[in-house]
Each structure stands twice: as structure tokens, then as C-alpha cells.
Write a structure and sequence with these properties.
The chain has 80 residues and is mainly beta. It contains one helix and four strands. Strand 2 and strand 3 form a beta hairpin.
Length: 80
Amino acid sequence: MEGKRPNLDRISVPTRIIVHRSELSTAALGEIIQKGEYVPSGGDVCELEAGGQVIARGRIVRRRGESCFKVMETAKGERS
């Protein structure tokens, strides 16, 4: 089957970005509490969690007008 890609079903894994370190003014903190959401700035160190496990640390960066997670290091774990 050279040249053909296998047909794979999509798998959904719950993921989230956890802000690890950030500095905020009291006004910014009040706005976050009021809105119920926080958008990290480019310098914030974050962790990417998938399936309840931290898999990488990185920063939020802007590329082509969109926010992206730039991996700085990956978590190392044992493989079974």
C-alpha cells in the first residue's frame, strides 16, 4: 500500500493550557474574575495537559494573527 495513508478515526483527548507563571495588575485580575476567562500573554510560562497529564511546558505566541502554544520542553515519562 505504498503511497496511501491509513484511514484513522479521530480520537478526542481532553486538553487544557495551565498558566504556570504570570504577573497581573489588580485591575487585570478583576477583569479576569468578572469575565471568567484569562488569555495568557506571550511571556507567560504555561503547561499543556492532556488526559490529566502534563505533556509539555511552553509559551503562548502569536503567529499569523492566531495564538499558538510554543513548546519549550516536553515532559519525560516511563513507557510501558
